[in-house]
């Protein structure tokens, strides 16, 4: 007696299995999507390892004892990767008549960074960010608070020049500054032999209420790579599960189709 196939489950749409071409296209899409999501997840694993290493290296630089700031013969080797946020020390005389106020937004509100050139004994000039001031500080002229005079030693964090302010551009002619662009500031103030970096001065612990307020450097490296890698790997898993479901469903449809064809085949006549 020929086998009789069971009827499809109640509510399930009755259709034939997909053709070879459709299945091939679906399989290729699934493979590409799966491989792509796995590759993106693996890339985020590598990015996370790099970011954690960067954070550890920067943290070590910040909390290390201050060392001499890079000299002119070392300037070509100074890079953000190897030197930014290094704790450095330098000694010289502040040129208060050539300082520049650069727009800033800090935990104390909106105001300005006070960028004052420091000329060292060998004639080299390093821009020092002496700290943050509010917009009404000295009527924005900065002439009422000269600051340290004579030979002064400064310790702080080495920072690289800023050349791409967000939305607004520096306007030296109008004395409006939005980025700590060393070359532009040096040109506007007539400074020569200027280091390719500036220094964010450490906080003056003896007088935490003094202006400019130093020590407000924010060191933050977004590290969302764990969330991203989990997301990409979950998407890869979803693709694999969906491909498995489609494959299993197509197998059932083919088995039902074979059983149905056997059930409707007429019996051979006996002689």
Mean of pLDDT: 79
**β content, as a range?**
15-25%
Number of strands: 7
* Sheet with the most strands: spatial strand order: 2-4-5-7-6
CATH class categorisation of the domain at 86-201: Mainly Beta
Query: With helices defined by DSSP (H or I, 4 residues minimum), what is the helix count?
Result: 4
Name the shape in a single word: elongated
Name the poorly predicted regions: 1-5
Would you give an account of this structure?
The chain is an alpha+beta fold. Among the domains are: 20-46 and 224-263; 86-201, OB fold (Dihydrolipoamide Acetyltransferase, E2P). It has helices spanning 20-63, 80-83, 182-189, 225-263, and strands spanning 67-68, 87-94, 100-106, 109-119, 125-133, 151-160, 194-201. It has a 5-stranded mixed beta barrel with strand order 2-4-5-7-6. The longest helix is centred in the N-terminal third of the chain and has 44 residues, at 20-63. It is elongated, with a radius of gyration of 34 Å. The two termini are 19 Å apart.
Outline the fold blueprint.
Elements: H1 20-63, E1 67-68, H2 80-83, E2 87-94, E3 100-106, E4 109-119, E5 125-133, E6 151-160, H3 182-189, E7 194-201, H4 225-263
Parallel strand pairs: 1-2, 5-7
Antiparallel strand pairs: 2-4, 2-6, 3-4, 4-5, 6-7
Helix pairs in contact: 1-4
């Amino acid at each position: 007696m020929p086998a009789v196939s069971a009827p499809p489950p109640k509510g399930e749409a009755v259709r034939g299995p997909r053709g070879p071409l459709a299945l091939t296209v679906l399989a290729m899409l699934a493979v590409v999507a799966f491989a792509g999501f796995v590759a993106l997840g693996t890339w985020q694993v590598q990015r996370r390892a790099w970011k954690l290493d960067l954070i550890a290296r920067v943290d070590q630089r910040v909390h290390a004892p201050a060392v001499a700031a890079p000299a002119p013969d070392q300037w070509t080797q100074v890079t953000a990767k190897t030197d930014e946020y290094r704790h450095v020390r330098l000694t010289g005389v502040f040129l208060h008549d050539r300082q520049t106020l650069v727009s800033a937004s800090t935990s104390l509100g909106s105001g300005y960074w006070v960028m004052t050139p420091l000329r060292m004994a060998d004639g080299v000039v390093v821009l020092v960010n002496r700290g943050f001031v509010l917009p009404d500080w000295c009527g924005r002229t900065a002439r009422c608070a000269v600051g340290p005079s004579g030979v002064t030693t400064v310790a702080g964090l080495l920072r690289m020049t800023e050349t791409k302010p967000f939305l607004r551009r520096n306007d030296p002619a109008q004395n409006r500054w939005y980025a700590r662009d060393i070359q532009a500031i040096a040109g506007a103030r007539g400074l020569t032999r200027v280091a390719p970096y500036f220094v964010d001065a450490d906080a003056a612990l003896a007088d935490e209420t003094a202006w400019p307020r130093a020590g407000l450097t924010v060191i933050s490296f977004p590290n969302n790579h764990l969330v991203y890698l989990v997301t990409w790997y979950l998407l890869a898993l979803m693709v694999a599960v969906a491909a498995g479901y489609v494959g299993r469903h197509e197998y059932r449809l083919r088995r039902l189709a074979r059983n149905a064809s056997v059930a409707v085949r007429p019996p051979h006549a006996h002689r």
